[in-house]
Every structure is written in structure tokens, then in C-alpha cells.
Give the backbone structure.
Amino acid sequence: MEKYLSKIKKSPLFLGITEEELSRMLNCFGASIKKYETGEMIIRQGDVVSKIYMILEGSVYIEKDSYWGRRIIVQKLNELNNIALGLVASRNAESSISAVCHKSATILALNFNKCSSMCTNACSHHVSLIQNMFKILSKENIELLEKIENISQKSIRDKLLTFLSNESMKNKSSSFEINFNRQELADYLNIDRSAMSFEMSKLKSEGLIDFEKNKFTLFELP
Amino acid sequence: MEKYLSKIKKSPLFLGITEEELSRMLNCFGASIKKYETGEMIIRQGDVVSKIYMILEGSVYIEKDSYWGRRIIVQKLNELNNIALGLVASRNAESSISAVCHKSATILALNFNKCSSMCTNACSHHVSLIQNMFKILSKENIELLEKIENISQKSIRDKLLTFLSNESMKNKSSSFEINFNRQELADYLNIDRSAMSFEMSKLKSEGLIDFEKNKFTLFELP
DNA sequence: AAAAATCTGTTGTAATTACAACAAAAATGT
DNA sequence: ACATTTTTGTTGTAATTACAACAGATTTTT
């Protein structure tokens, strides 16, 4: 646990909390660390979730299994992101998503119910924590909205351009690297990989974008 | 304002708060009520939002304008729903969405910054309020995930069946009414209305579903 | 109650996309 | 350094979808 303390301290959830205080908090939340292998389920759709998770190493897919067959990758989460923050707030609610380990990952689990009624203890750290949780939740909201924007475009071309333009804005630069490989990007955008590759080449030949591996450049920014 | 008190009291945001306390809170938050006409903007994409809104009458579209032209309807919100709850948490962040009045609406605005640092005042009502806010935010998250599930299906048929199956589950019944007319549903599912109508008729003739106007019945539930 | 406007279902056609199959390139393991 | 596996790009074809145009039904207005 100590090994990860300085990393955890930098997480959005514990932002602004001192290392000594963090130690006490982790204790209070019954923190535990577990390693998962690729493909292992951290949360299963339908589970009643009572813990909050934080990714310390590796990456995790948020998936949704539909009754009608397909499995959808909603998000890919990386280091220091939280899983299921929203689920804990609505207590006893069944998880509407699954969290699946992508590349072998180290996950921190926090039992928030242990420090039961949040905020009865009005110490300043508690306030920080709650504000952090709000920020994370609302950031997640914004990311989901962004995904909806991306996949709501009519054509493959528009989906690509919208996604790239959003990435560019987030990176505040017309050159940036993306987190997905081609198949993952196609899954995220809900399109066929080969059709996407084709369209990407076309955009390149038209001089609208340039890319090499996962590094992209947008030329005609809106 | 008094006219709406009993309604506001039933809202998810103020759940569990007494009417007397509510009055005091509304005062503390500098509550104001405003009427909007169809098409009027309540929040404009890019605005820095510092107020939380609650719909008292009418309905509101949450829209996203893409740089690449299209306007996407992300959600349709009805009575007692909140707008921009998430935006207030991440202070000074520009709104990534627009809120547009659908049918002339009455909107309550609350200035949460007025009662600045939330939770310094550790009264029990404050705690309720914060817990309610968490629940609402996480419910919004879940709804966005559901929308992503719906529109991530491959075919029109699957989108329809997924949407209907989700509605059925939410209503805990195989018969239920939906909130959208055909064009709105098509917009929400990101498909062509006429193609959707065609597929709906097909599903009906195959005996999988039945519908009349906005009342639907699912026959072969998963 | 008639007229106008809106909403819904139906159809054919053009455009877009998914899919399969394969080749080239890159990454990984031995 | 070679072999193997994975990733990426390319192409043709089949399937799906968007679009336009229209008719019938329903709602709203006059």
C-alpha cells in the first residue's frame, strides 16, 4: 500500500489531501489492493456495488451487455480513474455496467459505507473529498456526453472528424496522441474498423488530417 | 413562488426536506422563477454556468452543437428534473451542452454559490441535499449510459428493441407509454424516422411488439 | 364542422456501411 | 535474426439505411 501512496495522493479523488491524512482516510475506508488479469471482471453488470475502485496500474473497459446480444465498450479507463463512483451514491442500485480488466491491472478498493454518513464529520478533508467526488462525477457526465456527440454523427467521416476535433480541443493542440488502437477506436465510435481505416486514408489524402500510428494532426480546424 | 412550494418539495433534489426548511433554503439560494417560450435558450453551449435549474412546468431539450454542423438532442427533460447540476460542481467550466425550452416552460433557478462552500454548515438538511445531488448526478450518468447502449446497437431493429426493453424494465411492465413522438424517438435513437416506422410495423406484424400511438407492449421479453 | 397543420406509415431508389478476404506493416516472442 | 502473431490498410460485394415523396390519420385552429 505504502508503495502507491504518492500515486494515490495525485488522484482526482484525493486531490488536495495531505499524505498523512490520506493514510488515515485509506484506513478508515478499509482500503485494499488487488491485482486483476486481462479479461477478469471487476464489476459485473447487475452486481450491487458498495465499493469505489481506483485504477492504480493498467486499464479497464466499461462495458454494457445488451439483452439483445452485443457487448458495447462504453469507455476505456486508465490510471487514477475511478470506477463506479456514481453507483455508490445510489445505494443498493444494481450496476448497469460491467468493469472488465483490459491489461492486467492493479485496483484499489475503498469501502465508503464504512465511513457511513458522509459529511457528518465536517472536517475540511471531508469537504475536499466530497467536492472531488462531485467534480469526478460531473466530468464523467461530460465525457459520456462527448461520446454521445461523437457517435451521433451521421457518417463515418463526421464521426472521425468530431472525435478528432474533440481530442484536439482537449489537448489544446492540433497535434495529439490518442489512447485507442484502430479496433478500439472503431468500437468506441461504433463503426466498422476497415471502413474507418478507409475513411481515414481518404481524409489524409484530402489533406484534412495527418496521422502516423496514434499521433494525429488536424489541419483545417473549425 | 409559494404556488410551487409543494411541487418543489417533491423534487428529487429536495427529497426529505420539510416545507419550512425548503422555504429557508430557497431564500438562501436566491431562488427565482422565470418563464421561457418554445425555442428559448436556458443555457447556451459555452456559457459559464453558476446556477442550477429545475423544471417546474414544461419540458426542455439538452442539445449539443457540433462544430461539424449537426445539432444533437441528447435528452428530453421533464418536470422536476434539474439542468446543469454537474456543471456547477466543476466551477468555471464552460457548458458543453445547450438547454433549450421545448414547450413553454417554467424554470426555477438556484444560485448555489450563494451558500458558498457546501457542507461547511453541517446541518442535517445540508447532508440530505448533498446526498440528493449525488443521486441525481449518478442517475444522469446511468441515463446517459443507457442512451449510449441504445444508440450503439447495430441495426434499427436492435436499437428499437433495446430502447423498448429498457423502457419496459424502467416501467417494470411489458406495457408502457413513452415520452417521445416518432420524430423525437428517431432523433434520440439517431435514425431516420421513416425507416424506424417501417421497422416498427415489421416488429408488430412479426408479433414481437404491439403499439398504438405512444403505448407499447413487448411480447417476447428477454 | 370544415380547413389547415402536424404526425405517422409506406414505398422505391440512391448512398452508405458492414463484412469478408487478403496483403502489408509492425510488434512480439523465441 | 527469424518466425509468429497482431495490427493496419485496401478492395469488392451484399446488406442496411437515409432520403424523398406521398397518402392516410390525427390534432389543432378557425
Observations:
- Residues 124-151 of chain A form the longest helix (28 residues).
